[in-house]
Design goal:
The complex is a heterotetramer, with 2 copies of chain A (280 residues) and 2 copies of chain B (315 residues). Helices cover 25% and strands 29% of the residues of chain A. Chain A has 280 residues and is an alpha/beta fold. Chain B is α/β, with parallel strands linked by helices and 315 residues long. Chain B is built from 8 helices and 16 strands. Classes of the chains: A alpha/beta (280), B alpha/beta (315). At the B-C interface, strand 11, strand 13, helix 5 and helix 6 of B face strand 11, strand 13, helix 5 and helix 6 of C. Bound molecules: flavin-adenine dinucleotide (FAD) (2 copies), flavin mononucleotide (2 copies) and FE2/S2 (inorganic) cluster (2 copies). The site of one flavin mononucleotide has 25 residues of chain C, from strand 4.
Chain lengths: 280, 315, 315, 280
């Protein structure tokens, strides 16, 4: 679990990577619990023994929505939490469209058809760690934080979380605090913590000599990456794109990399910030 | 007709211009990567055939993102034919692919007649390749960008050039964006194609109302998925009634009944495209479903249903 | 640009070759009957325009059943142009229709150039008719059944003949089943059309696997609904960039965002077809949604968004 | 309610008919109860005040299934029961495909979008009445029977019902018995009543000099019509076809009439048997 990747895997031809590091499963997963918060954020926990056994923080699953052809494509969601003892994983998402609305309407006797674990998750860099999450980008960071908490003292690390307002952010703060972390917060409206953006919080933790892990809206990540490059800090970013297959087959999930295109579903979703082309 | 009991395994074998398939179910080019991507999710050796992503002479980076967008019961793609090029394909992909039991067909594409010929020449003697599928939906840069797939004489020319350099079974894949699909099929039949496959994607577009920008960076893209099945089936029906070479049906096939519809319309085999994305094992389900269908219909061989749609008052 | 407050009512008026519409939302021919069928379910007078079922010279019984079948996010129809004929239409339907506030456009069809001309002549002076829409998807029986809508010169000929007998605004409705839609649009523009509307249905087919029979008695039919929207939008975008006359967008429009996509692509107005069947008041919802859209975008007039899709690097 | 039609309305041009006899409504109808029997037969009762107020036996509603585009078209269902006091109507249907499966999965807090009442229902003919129903064709006959029971003694009339087996038929028998009718039954497997087809039961009630009302599978209705024409009995049939609009607009719901095509949604679904072309 959460293996330390020693070789620079990006030197290896992407398709042979599959055979090396990953094995994905298609599982029909009974829903254990489904909760819906005031701010339209839904958390679904499903029994998924094969996926739970092999998932690493930062990886994702492709979820089939409904049984029909509308919506047609699976939806990608990061693994928010992974409970190997109970063979379950959790997904956390916001209702933003037809697919997420349909998932939000499911009940505990329904089941979810998942493919996963997919993609390349976070790799363990220099400690201490600093996790910088914005909005629903916080979802995958919780799995990462759990792994960190299981390995080392939570005092060493920084957790910086931001959202639009207290209502959205507070549940996350509770979650991370539950793992023993001190959490620093920022909200757009100032209703919780710093009144402003979460990358601002980075200033308060410097000098810092560890690894930054970030996930959130693209402009936020750009800000984080800018600061990291100024401070010469290693930074890992988790990217989002539209995906059709999640398997590296459709070549639809492209983003511009340092040299040429990269495919988020296979070479990512987590990348060293230096591998991605930014408009800084 | 022999009587079929529940235990008899129906005969699913079909033959496509020299290509012998254990069953009529293949994966469509560009929707199954280089097959390896799916190897954990289904048994590749059960497939009737595998058609890999389109290969060009030189590597191509493809189009800028966004490249895909979902539409009602379908999707648009503008991948831009990203691929590693024929030489890297042979060197890096064929080692693994050659070990598969299912016949492998390589989809090829070019910007000029010469390019098509050169790619075919390089693939001709490669171990493990059972056939070529010519994608003629690409624009001919020398002829001002008009797609090879919309002008019968141009499609015939590409076919002839490829035919000259290889003995491999040759499938020509037709574009649906034409007034007269039968004319296109006849042209490539006359030029030496062993089979035609159809349809490639319909040209479509989507716009994001809020940002007023096209949803694809390329502005237009190819429409695929269940939405296009009726158009594909009509074209297969028209072509199968007009050419003597076998027809391979493609377009929105998502379940065994869909596949059977194409066989009834006259297709000898079918390819599954977009459905692989949302249901990676769909091809295996279709093969199983075809067997069930034959049992229900009291047929022993899939070959006996090809082209048997009852259009007259015969019933 | 004026600033828009939440209270300002955006200006939705558009003009289509002499036809002044209170808003760009019309109902598509064949999907709204003779309008009366919907009169209990929405306020017809709020519509930008109404296009009634295609009218031929003589009454037509239409095709044998089954005539319709549902497909993935769409439907196939082979109604066979059932209608009461131009004379009964004028006598029986126009009395009621003439009372409506919305402009009424009559869709016409024929098997020969002369028939088109004759229908137009009979409709020309009828009170309450604001324009004609020529459906050129029909086969020309004199030219061996080739559809008027697939040969530019034939489409131009029909347009010219109708143009000669009427001063009414003339919309020519294009078939999407062609290689080059721009060529068709230019041909009818040159022949005197005041506007083009597109698209009519894509030709499709469906088969019932169990009975092995086509699901339509007519074997093939026309595909409509959300499934075809990407193809329609692409064609509207292409045509709007190539002709000077106004373009009316049709195909799968089901909500305000869909309608806006067509306007951004260059359409001056739109028609709603299949959506009327499952949501009879959809046109009213679209009109309301267009107003909301303009407010959100800070625009005062719908005319300011026509053709404003941002395809360059302008952002 | 259940008006006696005096003029032969088929002489009137169908489209002006609309204005005369019908006014349809689009209603968003909260589900009051939904029950599902062992044989996949579902009964949904909804609050639909406008439809309930104006519906006649034999009329139908068009039901929107889901909010998406798959399935695209509304589904037609006969009005099975109509409770004017409680402003409710009931639909009774069998799960046969995607649409009916989705409807069967609804819950009492959901609502149904209905258009109705649509079409021309049964017209009151000579008494006594004989209702001949097969399978789900029994659904509209229950509304008709309720009206009959409200007007006249139930003793005068005959109720002949058939289905594949006891499991399917028994619930109907209970319903009609509940109205006070004596019910005669036939099942394909002989598990309830006559072992055979429901039209066979007609032989036992002759001599009969009233009106036959029938709904069921096409071959069954053909049989009923054949017997009626032999006995010169007036017969009303309720037909089914594929429908896109239910409003007379799409012209998709054609069947062959005595002279030329008729449209089931507007001129039917109930026709005098003599108006329909049979292959007897
Ligand atoms: C690797 C990965 C991990 C993700 N993890 C999470 C997560 O943990 N929690 C969460 O809430 N969301 C996550 N997302 C985003 C999530 O996939 C989309 O919110 C979801 O697909 C929207 O589906 P919909 O049908 O509700 O919306 P749609 O109606 O399809 O679209 C609504 C909006 O969502 C955007 N969207 C649609 N599909 C995608 C997609 N595949 N990727 C990104 N945006 C999309 C659309 O552009 C649109 O703006 C992740 C995306 C990726 C690629
Ligand atoms: C006026 C009218 C009244 C009806 N009343 C009832 C009723 O009270 N109870 C009941 O159980 N059924 C009734 N039906 C039939 C009912 O409409 C279909 O069973 C239903 O539409 C099937 O929908 P589906 O999506 O589940 O099936 P689909 O997946 O669409 O198709 C499954 C099967 O149903 C058939 N079917 C689909 N649509 C229709 C349609 N519009 N009309 C007839 N058959 C269709 C298909 O041909 C196929 O064989 C009625 C039909 C009509 C026209
Ligand atoms: C993402 C994507 C990529 C494709 N790439 C190719 C290609 O490289 N060569 C080709 O001939 N067809 C390509 N196609 C077309 C498919 O092979 C197929 O003809 C089409 O998608 C219709 O089938 P479907 O509806 O089952 O997807 C591609 C389709 C998709 C969706
Ligand atoms: C049942 C039906 C009947 C139609 N009849 C006509 C017609 O008579 N004349 C015509 O020009 N188009 C006719 N059309 C085409 C529509 O006007 C429209 O062009 C097409 O359906 C695409 O739009 P949509 O996807 O919104 O339905 C018909 C379409 C349907 C579904
Ligand atoms: S989503 Fe298909 S290649 Fe990444
Ligand atoms: S269902 Fe549309 S006319 Fe009858």
């Amino acid at each position: 679990m959460f293996s330390v990747v020693k070789t620079d895997i990006r030197q290896i031809e992407p398709y042979s990577l599959v055979a090396f590091f990953m094995s994905e499963f298609q599982e029909n997963c009974p829903i254990e619990t489904i909760t819906r918060s005031a701010s339209d954020v839904v958390c679904i926990t499903v029994l998924a023994s094969q996926i739970a056994r092999t998932a690493c923080p930062g990886q994702f699953v492709m979820v089939r929505v409904g049984n029909g052809y509308d919506p047609l494509l699976r939806r990608p969601f990061s693994i928010h939490a992974c409970d190997q003892k109970n063979n379950s994983i959790s997904l956390l998402f916001k209702v933003v469209g037809q697919g997420t609305a349909m998932l939000a309407a499911l009940a505990p006797d329904d089941s979810l058809d998942l493919i996963g674990p997919l993609g390349k998750g976070f790799s363990f860099g220099n400690t201490p760690a600093c996790l910088v999450g914005g909005g629903m980008g916080i979802a995958p960071l919780y799995f990462l934080a759990s792994e960190l908490a299981a390995r080392e003292s939570t005092n060493d690390h920084h957790i910086l979380l931001g959202a639009r307002n207290r209502e959205e952010l507070a549940p996350f703060v509770d979650q991370f605090s539950g793992l023993g972390f001190a959490v620093q917060t920022a909200t757009d409206d100032g209703s919780l913590g710093h009144h402003g953006f979460v990358p601002d919080l980075l200033d308060a933790i410097t000098p810092f000599a560890g690894t930054i892990y970030t996930c959130g809206p693209h402009p936020m990540m750009e800000n984080v990456v800018r600061k990291c490059s100024q401070l010469s800090l290693p930074c890992q970013v988790s990217l989002e794109t539209h995906m059709a297959c999640g398997l590296g087959a459709c070549l639809g999930c492209t983003v511009a990399g340092k040299d040429g295109y990269v495919h988020v579903c296979k070479q990512g979703p987590v990348f060293p910030a230096s591998e991605v082309k930014w408009t800084l | 007709m022999d009587t079929v009991t529940a235990n008899t395994r129906p005969d699913l074998r079909v033959s496509i211009g020299g290509l012998e398939l254990a069953n009529p179910v293949m994966t469509a080019s560009g929707t199954f990567g280089y097959a390896q991507e799916f190897s954990n999710l289904l048994d590749l050796d059960q497939l009737g055939g595998i058609i890999v992503k389109g290969i060009s002479l030189e590597p191509r980076p493809g189009n800028p993102p966004p490249r895909i967008v979902e539409t009602a019961c379908g999707m648009l793609n503008a991948i831009g034919l990203e691929n590693v090029g024929v030489d890297r394909f042979i060197k890096e992909k064929m080692v693994w692919l050659a070990k598969l039991a299912s016949p492998l067909v390589v989809n090829i594409l070019g910007d000029s007649v010469e390019e098509y010929g050169e790619i075919a020449r390089r693939l001709d003697q490669v171990e493990g390749i059972s056939g070529l599928e010519i994608n003629i939906s690409c624009p001919n840069v020398k002829k001002g960008g008009v797609a090879f797939g919309t002008v019968p004489t141009m499609a015939a020319e590409v076919t002839k050039v490829v035919r000259r350099v290889t003995e491999l079974p040759l499938i020509v894949k037709l574009s649906p964006n034409v007034t007269n699909i039968v004319e296109m099929a006849k042209a490539v039949e006359g030029a030496g194609a062993d089979a035609v496959s159809l349809i490639n994607t319909l040209i479509g577009m989507a716009i994001d109302a809020k940002s007023r920008r096209p949803k694809l960076a390329n502005i237009i893209g190819g429409l695929s998925g269940p939405a296009i099945k009726p158009v594909a089936l009509r074209m297969v029906y028209q072509v199968a009634g007009s050419v003597k070479i076998p027809v391979i049906g493609i377009g929105g096939i998502s379940c065994a009944d869909d596949a059977v519809e194409f066989l009834l319309a006259g297709a000898t085999a079918i390819q599954v495209g977009t459905a692989n994305f949302y249901e990676p094992a769909v091809t295996i389900q279709i093969i199983q479903g075809m067997e069930d269908y034959l049992r229900q219909q009291g047929e022993t061989s899939i070959r006996d249903i090809i082209g048997t749609v009852r259009t007259g008052a015969e019933v």
